[in-house]
Design brief:
Distance between the termini: 20 Å
Shape: globular
Number of domains: 1
CATH superfamily: MFS general substrate transporter like domains
Number of strands: 0
Radius of gyration: 19 Å
CATH architecture: Up-down Bundle
Structural class: mainly alpha
Number of helices: 17
CATH topology: Growth Hormone, Chain: A
Largest sheet: none
CATH class: Mainly Alpha
Strand content: under 5%
């Protein structure tokens, strides 16, 4: 029990640092672009590449963690992640920013973030507590957003954006140290089923494809808001401090949202909970666009969207475990997460492109509304039962 508790604490701290650090990048859009003389699309493209590479690398990192254990993958990923953030601080042109903040941070995140932690928890925590543990890990990632948003803004105000990024990178360097506690997760070396077979069977399962398409929308929403909400608010004449606190409030309220989703996912239908979350996101975006901009409406929006922010993660990963067991959960969740990150790439890049083309974000907000309601419909037909072939995988 003591060992399991140490694993849970270390995994939650990794989720806090790994997810929290990357959610602060939106605060650097304007000050770093101004410092280096970039247009807004240059920074947005680097973050878009980061999201895409995170998604592309996730199935491979998940498969390696499934076979050789989460600890080694988290340590290697955390080291690459930290290096990429530090090199971002020294980048002086769009190419070096794309390599450091895009490629290196993206690949580092695929191995050093909460997605690998969730797969480890699924194997190490008993089934009756699994949804709770997944929700807890996700909630701690959100708490990281609450911690790193004001911390990043404080670093920027005190030291400038370049030094602030280097300090954020120093925080990420703690991930490989914490990963030592998860070296006991040896994965599934005894698996007789090849990973390629698991992916093939999953991709022929209609409910898995619906879940994958819905998670695309989650990535679009989160990446667009976390990267473009701060400059959107400053364009409206609101303060940078308010933008930082909006991101922090999203993270704080999602501690409640993600944890609650994990608990409810062990009791109620996960597909219906997911449908309700996406519909509520669409409604929250619509109200935010319709109401006059003010500190009050910004903070209310942040609180509402925070409750819905990463609450999709424990429910989505929980559905995968129900359908296919936990033997290949890292890989199969990684494939779904790739869809999430393709959505994130489009949300971040398109946000910058739309802004440069139109001088505003109105089209992006309306796209977010439409996608939210579409995702709500997509989840309704999902079958919450074990898939025929992989139902025999250990759960």
């Amino acid at each position: 029990m003591r060992t399991r508790n140490v694993v849970i604490v270390a995994g939650c701290l990794i989720a806090l640092i790994g997810f929290g650090a990357r959610t602060s990048f939106g605060l650097f859009t304007e000050p770093l672009s101004a410092l280096r003389g970039w247009d807004r699309e240059t920074f947005a493209l680097a973050i878009a590449i980061q999201n895409l590479l995170w998604g592309i690398g996730q199935p491979f990192a998940g498969a390696i963690a499934d076979r050789f254990g989460a600890g080694r993958v988290l340590a290697a990923g955390g080291a690459v992640y930290a290096l990429g953030v530090v090199l971002m601080s020294a980048s002086t042109n769009g190419t070096t920013l794309a390599i450091s903040g895009g490629v290196l941070v993206g690949l580092g995140l695929s191995g050093g973030s909460f997605t690998i932690v969730i797969a480890a928890f699924a194997r190490l925590v008993p089934e009756d507590r699994r949804s709770w543990a997944m929700g807890l890990a996700t909630a701690m990632g959100s708490l990281g957003q609450f911690v790193f948003a004001p911390l990043g803004q404080g670093f920027i105000g005190a030291y400038g954006p370049a030094t602030a990024l280097a300090l954020i990178g120093g925080c990420v360097a703690l991930v490989p140290v914490l990963a030592l506690a998860l070296t006991g997760d040896r994965g599934a070396r005894e698996s007789q089923e090849r990973s390629s077979h698991a992916v093939r069977d999953a991709l022929t399962h209609p409910s898995y494809l619906l879940l994958t398409s819905g998670f695309f929308v989650c990535g679009f929403h989160i990446a667009f808001v976390s990267t473009h909400l701060p400059p959107y608010l400053t364009d409206l004449g609101l303060s940078t401090a308010l933008a930082a606190w909006a991101l922090a409030l999203i993270g704080l309220f999602n501690v409640v949202g993600a944890y609650t989703a994990g608990v409810l996912g062990g009791i109620y239908s996960r597909r219906l909970l997911l449908s309700a979350i996406y519909a509520s996101r669409g409604a929250a975006f619509a109200l935010f666009v319709a109401l006059p901009p003010s500190p009050a409406t910004v903070l209310l929006f942040a609180a509402a969207i925070g409750l819905l922010w990463l609450s999709t993660v424990p429910l989505t990963s929980g559905l995968i475990a129900v359908m296919f067991g936990t033997r290949h959960l890292g890989l199969l969740f990684g494939v779904v997460f790739l869809s999430h990150q393709v959505g994130a790439f489009i949300g971040v890049w398109l946000g910058g492109a739309v802004y440069d083309a139109t001088g505003g974000y109105d089209l992006m907000w309306w796209a977010s509304i439409a996608l939210g309601f579409a995702a709500a419909l997509v989840h309704l037909p999902i079958d919450e039962r074990p898939a025929p072939r992989l139902a025999a995988s250990p759960a």
